Amino acid sequence: MTIPAVTLNNGVQMPQIGLGTWPLKDHDAAPVMVTAIEAGYRHIDTAFRYGNQRGVGQGVRDSGIAREELFITSKLDGEFQGENRAIAGLDACLQQLQMDYVDLLLIHWPLPQRNDYVSTWKTFETLVASGKVRSIGVSNFTPAHLDHLLAETTICPATNQIQLSPRITRPDQVAYGRAHGIVTVSWSPLGQGSDLLSDPTLQAIAQKYGKTTAQVVLRWNIELGLVPIPKSSNPVRLVQNLDIFDFALTSAEIAAITALDTGAEKRVDSDVDGH
Length: 275
Ligand code: A2P
Fold this sequence. Notes:
Oligomer: single chain
Bound molecules: adenosine-2'-5'-diphosphate
Number of strands: 10
């Protein structure tokens, strides 16, 4: 199976679907990585905060795949934000992963009350030359945070990873990314196992194509140029979530799925939420 790639604004290629690893921990991540890589995943998303990087790295080694075949994302926040702190943060990630580099390093949360995402980003910019990170990006940033960042720094983030599903479509953030060449990555694209997947609109579309509602939601991400990173530890669902490249949604179906955003579902607010 060939997974299409998106090209980041620095020319690096990123597989258009990845494996989310939260809330896996070190003790259970490794076998999931082996199963996922066998199923065809080549893009894995982790973070220092998840407490699973040792398990993720172990699983990658257990799979026997060559490191350069994979696209690995990690994220830094908390103690690793602020001037120069990301240097030690990246080293800590690499030490846990037992890898020489990550493909993408993100600021996990803007934490605007700390007022240090600009200084963190300036340190991220210096890390690119170290060879320990191929691309740098952000997560959970609003257009206002990005405006501030772009005005004060040199490198445009390659990605903004945000919570995005048919119930939380975040049109402003997606449009901002398109306008600035920032790829939008969707975390919790399946709604974290909520009742999203039994929505009647999704069920009708799924039935038409002989797919599951999860596959329809992931395909909707692909049609919109987004990069979903669904999490699963279940071998059947891991395979199912990759099997989305043999059908296409109509523009009416894409619009109907986008219209499921009622604004009713609780959203993570990066301005106030520091986790
Ligand atoms: P599991 O790991 O048992 O498969 P999200 O990525 O939106 O946060 O969603 C992750 C949740 O959705 C997990 O609870 C995961 O459970 C479940 N999940 C993942 N893939 C599917 C699928 N294809 N169908 C139904 N549930 C899924």
